[in-house]
Amino acid sequence: MARSQESRDRREPTLTEQARRAQLIEVTIDRIAEHGYGGTSLSRIAEGAGITKAAVLYHFPTKAAVVRAAHEHVLAALTEHVGTAVSAVGPQQAPAAYIRAMIGHLRERPRHTRVIIEAMTHEEGDHEPHERWGPLADLLAAAREDPSPAPEQELRTTAIIIGGAIDAIVAEQLSDPDYDTAAAADQLVAMVRTDPVLTHHGKNPPLPDTATDKGRAP
Q: What pTM was estimated for this model as a whole?
């Protein structure tokens, strides 16, 4: 069994195998969103996909492997969405685009949010903290009105604070679907505009109030 799995790992999967893996990842996302990590089993994933547990194991050797694949799929979608939003604006607008795109993407995909939370809680994946705050710190550095470099500690702390606020806003919407995350994103952007890391001589960089995320609620 292990030898067969190793052989499959070395070759390019067929189109049929790719489609089945994609289906299993989507089913796993659904099961985690509905039952949590602990309530998601290979048997439940197999039932949702309409195949046997042995067929699931043909594509993923363990529950941890399919959950990890689901987590990576969710993160890749989020990263692509946020990256596109940030690339569409100038450096001074990038932090606002990051905040709104991150919150907007997860607002529209609560299943993905559940997967991220469950994966973090159960430590699935090997993601270092720097992978989360580092890119945002770089955006903050580029958005500074003052051309002189900001202390790394200040950039890091501000990025961590913003990331924590985003997490809290998204989590609040999971517990209260009526919570207005678009308005919360606007408020967070307004707070970032006045952060000392970005301002210089009491002036604020022109982070716009208009949303850059197309999925923003009116």
A: 0.80
